[in-house]
Amino acid sequence: MNNSLLNKLISNASGVLNTANQIIPLYNELKPLFKNILTIKNKIKSLNINKLFQNINTINHNNKSIINKKEEVTNNFTSSIPQFFL
């Protein structure tokens, strides 16, 4: 075997090992984060968001009805001036 070939092989193997030594701890730190993200995603999928929005819209619609009824009551006023209709 050639010395230059052996040097290139050792140099490349050293580079791969250095990269692996940096990536493995990073992976171990990020693994719980990814696991939590997947858990949160699954919980959001199990939550029926459309039903939640329908409930919110129903509540808002009911509140608007109450507000409109209150406005109708406040707009009625009596006057001592006679009104004539044609």
The pLDDT mean sits at 76
Strand content: under 5%
**Series of secondary-structure elements, N-terminal to C-terminal:** HH
Radius of gyration over all CA atoms, rounded = 36 Å
The biggest sheet, with number of strands, parallel, antiparallel or mixed sense and barrel status, is:
none
Shape: rod-shaped
Low-confidence stretches: none
Between the first and last Cα atoms, what is the distance in angstroms?
116 Å
Number of strands: 0
SS-derived structural category: mainly alpha
Q: Give the proportion of residues in helices.
A: over 70%
Q: Tally the helices: what do you get?
A: 2
Brief rundown of the structure:
The chain starts with a helix and ends in an 11-residue tail after the last helix.
Describe the structure.
- This protein is mostly helical and 86 residues long.
- Helix content is 83%, strand content 0%.
- The protein is built from two helices and no strands.
- The N and C termini lie far apart (116 Å).
- The mean pLDDT is 76.
Q: How do the strands and helices of this protein lay out in sequence?
A:
Layout (H helix, E strand, L loop, with lengths): L2 H44 L2 H27 L11
Name a few traits of the molecule:
single chain; 86 residues; mainly alpha; 2 helices; 83% helix
